[in-house]
Write a structure and sequence with these properties.
Layout lengths: L4 H18 L1 H4 L6 H5 L6 H4 L7 H26 L1 H18 L2 H7 L11 H14 L4 E4 L2 E6 H18 L6 H18 L2 H7 L3
Antiparallel strand pairs: 1-2
Helix pairs in contact: 1-5, 5-6, 5-8, 6-8, 6-10, 8-10, 9-10
Length: 204
């Protein structure tokens, strides 16, 4: 019986997030808190924050993104590396992508005692950009921009938007975490298959 890592992750994140909705005081212990971490506290948040979400809208958007792009990437890796190795690679990408998504936010917010973050957006960004690097010619779109465009164009535009939003600030969204996760996804693919860089650039 073939079990999809994407489906298992969606199930786990949904169950844990739901419990976090019910017990917000419990969820607070697992948020990403750069200030506390820089003072030697709550380091578990680096690993635990991406299993929780602020609300149902936050959760559904991330899980839909994971389902749509993650399923594509998982199927490619299972085809190219076999079921066991492809599934393990995808799981590593997601988990380490979630951890890597804290790098830029940590350095930007380690002196801010009021900063907290949660959500799978950084881990999902790693998956999205790994998928873009693996299959740059696929068509992607956004809810507010429903016309599909090639992934090799979508990726740079998305990163440019995230950078602009990060610099502007006051978005209540961890744009820096999205960027960190995305960069990890790109790096992961290039370490796994360096020729993917040439394939991506050949589209321009």
């Amino acid at each position: 019986m073939v079990i999809s890592v994407v489906y298992l992750l969606i199930l786990l994140v949904t169950l844990i997030s739901y419990e976090g909705f019910r017990r917000q005081y419990w969820r607070e212990e697992y948020l990403f808190n750069p200030y506390a971490i820089s003072n030697g506290q709550k380091s578990l948040g680096v690993f635990s924050h991406f299993w929780f979400h602020a609300d149902w809208q936050h959760l559904i958007f991330n899980m839909l993104s994971l389902f749509m792009l993650g399923s594509v990437l998982e199927s490619f890796w299972i085809r190219d590396f076999g079921y066991a190795e492809g599934s393990i690679l995808f799981l590593i990408l997601y988990l380490f992508g979630g951890v890597a998504s804290t790098i830029l936010p940590f350095f930007r917010h380690r002196y801010d005692p009021n900063y907290r973050s949660l959500g799978a957006s950084g881990a999902v960004s790693a998956v999205v950009f790994a998928a873009i690097m693996w299959y740059p010619k696929m068509q992607l779109g956004l809810l507010f921009f429903p016309i599909p465009i090639p992934a090799y164009i979508f990726g740079p535009l998305y990163l440019a938007f995230e950078y602009y939003a990060m610099r502007r600030g006051n978005t209540q969204i961890a744009n820096d975490g999205h960027i960190s996760g995305a960069l990890f996804g790109i790096l992961f693919v290039l370490l796994l298959e360096p020729s993917k860089l040439g394939e991506f650039l050949n589209n321009f």
